[in-house]
Automatic annotation (TrEMBL):
This is Stc1 domain-containing protein. Residues 50-62 have a biased composition (Basic and acidic residues). Residues 184-194 have a biased composition (Basic residues). It comes from the Eukaryota. Residues 174-183 have a biased composition (Low complexity). The lineage of its organism: Eukaryota, Sar, Stramenopiles, Ochrophyta, Bacillariophyta.
Amino acid sequence: MSTPVVTDKWAGNFDCSICRRKRLVGSEFSSKALERFRKTGSALKCKKCVSEQETKEREAAAKRRAASETSGTGSLGNEKHVCASCKNSLPQADYNRNQLAKKEKARCRKCVEKAIQNEEAGRKSSREDKISDLKKKIEQMNLKGDIKEKVRLESELSALEAEHVTGLKPIKMSSAGRGSWRARAGRGRGRGRK
């Protein structure tokens, strides 16, 4: 049975195919997953389920690595590499293949995981900070009475909130082509007729 999300803030329209949570907002999923869902209608996995799956895969890989080292059939050498982040000299087993390919810029598994967590936390707090700043500015505009600026700020706020719920970034319409409705409407087509 699916577990509904209980919140007083948002209600989305996305469901996770793994944990079966319903009515999730777009920010619960990666942008690639949402794009694939919109194009092909494929099943969605929320960020929480993806991270749990990655953790399980890392643990299984660590067990396989430990088993191969104890049996002596490990393909990994005893070569040590210096992590570009923490500057520790660590055995090759503490790096994944992608990082080892980066040579002197390689980061160990712990540093990579820490960077991913920090990036996600920064992204989340950045969005929340932008929303709270805009709300404060709107309150100030209520006191000043500048309606034009208030409408602009409220438009920005609604775009940020919509991006959070739908996962779609707002599209800014350009002013190019302004007034060209006459050309599109066919003005001037009948010239020359009598």
